[in-house]
Specification:
Layout: H1 5-33, H2 38-46, H3 65-78, H4 81-99, H5 102-114, E1 119-122, E2 138-142, E3 145-156, E4 163-170, E5 173-180, E6 186-187, E7 190-195, E8 206-217, E9 221-222, H6 228-264, E10 266-267, E11 270-271, H7 276-304, H8 310-335, H9 346-358, H10 363-381
Parallel strand pairs: 1-4
Antiparallel strand pairs: 2-3, 3-8, 4-5, 5-9, 6-7, 7-8, 10-11
Length: 382
């Protein structure tokens, strides 16, 4: 159900004010120290951001995807890492909403909505990133339990999450399990093998996780056995729209900084904003930013309407992420030497932007998804 536009605007404005007041002043300090923002996460819980898209009957805000991408854009504007804390959590919740039983929804969604437990997605492996058919993590049925063995890579929130949406190979294909764990480096047969250092996207853990004969009950299976990959790929449409919204937030921050600096910096007797070369760059930046936002909005509307949105989500993710990277680079160029220092957040935008080129499927994969989707739609019309 669509959210009332006035309610949407109020929610987004509340997040915007939170970001300006509490995030922007500390983002660079936390990011450079690679420090997890515990206090900010608690404030995000209080604002209900872990339950934005979870239905009200389960304790969430029950808001639509357009509201969600607005929230994500505002968080990314202040500090992109905060969006990762929410994104994988939202994907895990969306998997349960779409494919869980009533009992599973009642068991997990209320705690996810408040942030009491946090969710994460575990799909990629050391030898299976975009090649999802090559998953080797296995779940073997043993009576009323499954025994899970394997290694997972690039798990955002993996250490602090209490709930893992896990893709594992079963006898009939790839299945999705909701695995409960205690936050921390080890729980039962689950261990966080290592925390992976990153160029940007710091302050939030991205880990390798190992499953060593970890046992889960059969009611941890989400939906039908062997159909888990389809569930996850559908949920990743939300993830790709999230990445697009993040990219819009970073691009907007980079543009706003460039626009402000261009009016302040004086060379040859006038602000550089009065030089044609800078004006042309600003015009291109603003145009690409607006196009990225509209593509993201279109993908969210289509997904919200229950329509297939693989092409639209791929387009939004592809264009918005490329735009974020271009605008971060252009903003650094407009700032000149000071943009290359750690005194301003420009260098952080420049380091954060490449994540969106890679996350939730590389842009090379997005182009394949888009092309295949277009061809399939053309054949369906023939």
């Amino acid at each position: 159900m669509a959210t009332d536009p006035e309610v949407r605007a109020q929610v987004i404005d509340t997040v915007r004010r939170f970001v300006a007041r509490d995030v922007v002043p500390v983002a660079s300090e936390f990011e450079h120290a690679n420090r997890y923002p515990e206090a900010l996460v608690e404030q995000m819980k209080a604002l209900g951001l872990f339950g934005v898209t979870i239905p009200e009957e389960y304790g969430g805000l029950g808001l639509d995807l357009l509201t969600y991408i607005g929230v994500i854009e505002e968080l990314a504007y202040g500090w992109m890492s905060l969006t990762g804390i929410v994104n994988t959590h939202t994907i895990a919740a969306s998997l349960i909403i779409a494919n869980g039983t009533d009992e599973q929804r009642q068991r997990w969604l209320p705690r996810l909505a408040t942030g009491e437990i946090r969710g994460c997605l575990s799909l990629s492996e050391p030898d299976a990133g975009s090649d999802t058919q090559n998953l080797s993590c296995r779940a073997v049925r043993d009576g009323d339990e499954y025994v899970i063995t394997g290694t997972k890579m690039w798990v955002t929130n993996g250490e602090r999450a209490g709930l893992v949406a896990l893709a594992a190979r079963t006898d009939d294909g790839i299945s999705c399990f909701i695995v409960e764990k205690e936050p921390g480096p080890r729980f039962g047969g689950i261990s966080v093998s290592r925390d992976i250092g990153k160029l940007g996207y710091r302050g939030i853990e991205t880990v390798e996780m190992s499953y060593d004969n970890h046992r889960v009950s059969v009611d941890s299976l989400l939906g039908d056995s062997g159909r888990g990959l389809g569930y996850i790929l559908s949920a990743l449409e939300v993830g790709r729209i999230n990445i697009a919204a993040r990219a819009v937030g970073v691009a907007r921050a980079a543009f706003d900084a460039a626009l402000a600096y261009a009016q302040e910096r004086v060379t040859m007797g006038k602000p550089i904003a009065q030089h044609q070369a800078i004006q042309m760059k600003l015009a291109d930046m603003a145009t690409k930013l607006e196009a990225a936002r509209l593509l993201t909005k279109n993908a969210a509307e289509r997904k919200q309407a229950g329509e297939r949105a693989d092409v639209e989500a791929g387009m939004a993710k592809l264009f918005a992420s490329e735009t974020a990277f271009e605008l971060a680079t252009d903003s650094m160029r407009i700032h000149g030497g000071v943009g290359y220092t750690t005194e301003l957040p420009i260098e952080r935008y420049y380091r954060d932007a490449p994540l969106m080129l890679i996350g939730e499927g590389t842009n090379e994969i997005q182009r394949l998804v888009i092309a295949r989707g277009l061809l399939a739609r053309a054949q369906a019309k023939a």
